[in-house]
UniProtKB/TrEMBL annotation:
It catalyses: adenylyl-molybdopterin + molybdate = Mo-molybdopterin + AMP + H(+). InterPro entries: MoaB/Mog-like_dom_sf, MoaB/Mog_dom, MoeA-like, MoeA_C_domain_IV, MoeA_C_domain_IV_sf, MoeA_linker/N, MoeA_linker/N_sf. Belongs to the MoeA family. This is Molybdopterin molybdenumtransferase. It comes from Pelotomaculum thermopropionicum (strain DSM 13744 / JCM 10971 / SI). GO terms for biological process: Mo-molybdopterin cofactor biosynthetic process. NCBIfam families: Glp_gephyrin, molyb_syn. It comes from the Bacteria. The gene is MoeA.
Length: 416
């Protein structure tokens, strides 16, 4: 067990764990429709141009642009209507100088044509002749062959998390199965003699388990596969057995409770006994979340999250969520950086808050908008109260260099 209770910064804690983790996760092939939210295991290259031909973006007439130059309402360019493009069909013929072909939105441009005149800027003189009342430039109202994506281009890179628009892109290049990373399996263990499950009636001195449920939801929300291992009392042997079982069945394990120093705090000992290198740090300089344990056991991260329910969730957000989203620090460097740096909203703090220098504070805040400005109102209350998380919309960060923030100052906020 190294560096016991030397509090690391979140960044140092991240680096400490990252050194031991494999960068790449195994992949699995899935039907496209099941790929939403999953990370691509490999680059997907477009095997062909999309679209595969020049297409019109409007209803109108396919023309040679130069035939329309100088056209005005007073002096239209007259063109012969020589054909019609049928949807889904290759045009049978060429647009020769002085000719126009009827075309609908999405129709394939006939050879010879390089632009489309919108119907609104034409007048039909008879069924064989139109007058164009406004010129078009080459390429106007046309999506070029390969303009969406060109053959050989990377449509989506490895590691990309698939969104609805990405499913559309994959479908457009003819990919109906994708290789995605297996989700990170996360075992969750709650520790404490005082805990009972939600179905039980606690006797005085007992409370119902909260962290199993918040963490289960948090893992699933990050695209991971959570699995509960129940409540383990403050019993070293039982915790060791449960931890070993959870490690054998998962890629990562979260314990909560039993992380601070106390006579019954056995989490660190149990983690250390499970394998190498064991506990890497015990304590990070954040509030809430100070007594967090970070460990790696045989290539699998293990976190001992603080027992207080709000603290456990905040530390999850900072340390664990990026790992679950990315499946590994090496692969997920981007997600990790974002987790540490992306507090994208700016809001006016509504009351002054104290903070200790050298410590990074994360304040639960409720947001509201007034006169077009965003305000962050701290949700006051101890980190043992889950209601503080329920009332909050997000976290505001007070950087380690500051000893507090005054009411009216701007703070950076991340939404839950
Ligand atoms: N003398 C000190 N006491 C404490 C310190 C300290 O520095 N000196 N740190 C406090 C901080 S900060 C936190 S956070 C907690 C961390 O405690 P542990 O991680 O060791 O967890 P426990 O002692 O087991 O539990 C703390 C608290 O949380 C409740 N809890 C635990 N697990 C659950 C759960 N699954 N669902 C609901 N509630 C849970 C537990 O009943 C305790 O009330 O230590 C402070 N103490
Ligand atoms: O750090 Mo404890 O995690 O404040 O509540």
């Amino acid at each position: 067990m190294a560096e016991l209770f030397k509090a690391l910064t979140v960044e140092e804690a991240r680096v400490a764990v990252a050194r031991y983790l494999p960068g790449k996760r195994p992949g699995v092939r899935l039907p496209l429709l099941e790929s939403l939210g999953r990370r691509l295991a490999a680059d997907v290259r477009a095997p062909e141009d999309v679209p595969g031909f020049d297409r019109s973006t409007v209803d109108g007439y396919a023309v040679r642009a130069r035939d329309t130059y100088g056209a005005t309402e007073g002096l239209p360019s007259y063109l012969d209507v020589a054909g019609e493009v049928l949807m889904g069909r290759e045009p049978e013929g060429t647009v020769s100088p002085g000719q126009a072909w009827r075309i609908a939105t999405g129709g394939m441009l006939p050879p010879g044509a390089d632009a489309v005149v919108m119907l609104e800027y034409t007048e039909e003189l008879d069924c064989r002749t139109i007058g164009v009342t406004r010129p078009v430039a080459p390429g106007e109202n046309v999506i070029r062959k390969g303009e969406d994506i060109a053959a050989g281009e990377i449509a989506l890179p490895a590691g990309h998390r698939i969104r609805p628009q990405d499913m559309g892109m994959l479908s457009s290049v003819g990919v109906s199965e994708v290789e995605v990373e297996l989700p990170v399996r996360v075992g969750i263990i709650s520790t404490g003699d005082e805990l009972v499950s939600p179905g039980e009636r606690p006797v005085p001195g007992q409370v119902r388990d909260i962290n199993s449920y918040t963490l289960y939801g948090a893992v699933a929300a990050c695209g991971g596969e959570p699995r509960l291992y129940g409540i383990v009392g403050d019993d070293y042997e039982k915790l060791k057995r449960t931890l070993e079982l959870a490690l054998s069945e998962n890629d990562m394990v979260l314990l909560s409770g039993g992380s601070s120093v106390g006579t019954r705090d056995v989490a660190a000992l149990a983690i250390d006994s499970a394998g190498e290198p064991g506990v890497l740090f015990h304590g990070i300089s954040v509030k809430p979340g100070k007594p967090t344990i970070g460990a790696v056991v045989n290539g699998k991260p293990v976190f001992g999250l603080p027992g207080h329910p709000a603290s456990a969730m905040v530390v999850f957000e900072l340390m664990v969520a990026p790992l679950v989203r990315s499946g590994g620090y090496a692969a997920g460097e981007k997600e990790m950086r974002e987790a540490l740096t992306a507090f994208p909203l700016r809001a006016v703090l509504t009351r002054s808050l104290h903070s200790a220098a050298g410590r990074e504070d994360f304040i639960r805040v409720r947001l509201h908008c007034k006169d077009g400005r965003l305000f962050a109102e701290p949700v006051l209350g101890k980190s043992g109260l889950i209601s503080t998380m329920v009332k909050a919309d997000g976290l505001a960060r007070i950087p380690p260099g500051k000893e507090g923030v005054e009411a009216g100052e701007i703070v950076e906020v991340k939404l839950f």
